[in-house]
Amino acid sequence: MSPAVTFDDAELVAIALAFLGSAYASRNFTEWPIDRRLDAYLRREEMRSLADDGTIFAALLDRVMANISCASVSGALGPDD
Fold first, then answer.
1. What is d(CA 76, CA 53) in angstroms, rounded to the nearest whole number?
2. How does 49-81 read in b/e, with b if 16+ C-beta sit within 10 Å?
3. Distance (Å, whole) CA 55 – CA 71
4. How far is CA 35 from CA 1, 25, 74, 79, in A?
5. What is the largest CA-CA distance in the chain?
6. Environment class of residue 8 by beta-carbon count within 10 Å: exposed (0-12), middle (13-18) or buried (19+)?
7. Averaged over 41-47, what is the pLDDT?
8. What is the mean pLDDT of residues 41-54?
9. How far apart are the first and last CA of the chain?
10. In b/e form, how buried is each residue of 23-46, taking b as 16+ CB within 10 angstroms?
11. What residues does each domain of the chain span?
12. What is the pTM of this model?
């Protein structure tokens, strides 16, 4: 069994902000639930292990939700192509 991967809060926030700046956070994906968008983003960015680890995924989703407002105000949300 491989050792558990751990991330500190700053790393999770950085990934959350990268997600919020991606196309998966744009209006193009509004029909998808936020957890599905995050999962797709992680898999596309070759971070499958984060998508597959329920504990890390939940923590990351919390960071995404906590930063949506800030990303929206700053204009950092994904592009609306």
1. 27
2. ebbebeebbebbbebbeebeeebeeeeebbeee
3. 24
4. 27, 11, 22, 19
5. 43
6. exposed
7. 97
8. 96
9. 43
10. bbbbeebeeeebeebbbbbbeeee
11. 9-74
12. 0.84
Amino acid present at 69: S
Cβ atoms 38, 65 nearer than 8 A: no
Residue 46 one-letter amino acid: E
Residue type, 74: S
Q: For the chain, give the secondary structure using H, E and C.
A: CCCCCCCCHHHHHHHHHHHHCCHHHCHHHCCCCHHHHHHHHHHHCCCHHHHHCHHHHHHHHHHHHHHHHHHHHHCCCCCCC
